[in-house]
Amino acid sequence: MVIVGAGLAAWTTVRELRKLDSAVPIQLVTRDHGDFYAKPTLSNAFGQKRSPDHLVTTAAATMAQNLGITLCAHTTVTSIDAATQTLTVEHGGKKEDLPYRQLVLATGANPIRIPMRGDAAQAIQSVNHLDDFRRFHAELTALPVRVGGQPHRVLVIGAGLIGCEFANDLAQAGYAVHVVDPASGPMAALLPPAVGEQLRRALEALGVVWHWGVTVQTLQGAATGAHRYVGTLSDGTSVEADAVLSAVGLRADTALAILAGLSCDRGVLVDAQLQTSAPGVYALGDCAQYASAGGRTLPYVMPIMNAARALAATLSGTPTDLVFPLMPVAIKTPALPITVAAPHPDTQGVWTQDPATEGLLDGGAWRFVDADGAQRGFVLTGKQCSKRMEWSKATAP
Length: 397
Ligand SMILES: Cc1cc2nc3c(=O)[nH]c(=O)nc-3n(C[C@H](O)[C@H](O)[C@H](O)COP(=O)(O)OP(=O)(O)OC[C@H]3O[C@@H](n4cnc5c(N)ncnc54)[C@H](O)[C@@H]3O)c2cc1C
Hints:
By secondary structure, the chain is an alpha/beta fold. It is 22% helix and 27% strand.
């Protein structure tokens, strides 16, 4: 069995498989180091003063030894021949063929790059892997101390979930943070407007400066001024910054699957048993688009845990349909803790606040109700986040 990738999806699949089958030979091929870390910690590490090295919980070699697998780190799968069940891999400039009986694609996603003009456009960073975070962390920690001890400024492009988490984390760590987004409030696609407004104010209280309804058009090196770069926004205003982080979203990494002729849409299409359009080839994690989720991609931790369990059962001889439970996501914005169980994007309905929480200063609860009166999603804030279990029970998945 060959697994491509060494993120949460790959390692969790191996762990679940080993619970069911201690003997099947498993080879894990990954283009990165393979070290195990929890990706969600990347967006709250600055506030906790955790360096990139401290985020690694288990080294790749130890993972491989404990789970009894063969690890091929720093090795890229360049093609898949599903007819002959062979992979081509590249390591250190050398290519080699690798046969498989069952293949699991866990190739994750890539940050979306927005077109940007200006001589400093290449300085824009995004953080989706530990190595990205290493680069971003190195850039910020290498900045020379500013005159008068003024804080360094970070420009965050995108006020979605990851942008807001980084804005909170960097502001908490003492950076001056500016956030630019074409929407009119934070996480506009995910939150009811009233909660977005609370989050806006909570982050503003930490010093975050928002630029709504605009995009960054150019990024230039600053010839003069207090900061290294100057961004020009679509309304003509300028924002100076010492570092720029793009958090405008992720796109499933389907490159390998497309090359192999597998059916792909917004992700690698998988059926209820996580099989792709090629027999014996499976996919899960950020790269997958799940039939079991009504054709959605689900780039979060809980879907991966559920998918890995079902896949391990199928791979070890018990074909198992994946059934996703309701999977609320805890958003790591300590300025306003939020738990979201988002309704399916196609569901028509309205958000209303639970009257029992109206006027409470320490948190609130909102339910999304569809046209038939069924609760299809919810958002909890502050202290109400502790009621996630009871709200989950009351919500149709
Ligand atoms: C900053 C941040 C914070 C987050 N916070 C949360 C959170 O709080 N809660 C939550 O639920 N979710 C969160 N998420 C999402 C969650 O972390 C991801 O859904 C999950 O980690 C994705 O795991 P994965 O294994 O599918 O992909 P990845 O971790 O991206 O792993 C992909 C692997 O595939 C390898 N690979 C790709 N192509 C090839 C190839 N051709 N050959 C060999 N190897 C290849 C890569 O090297 C990598 O090892 C967060 C994400 C980010 C970026």
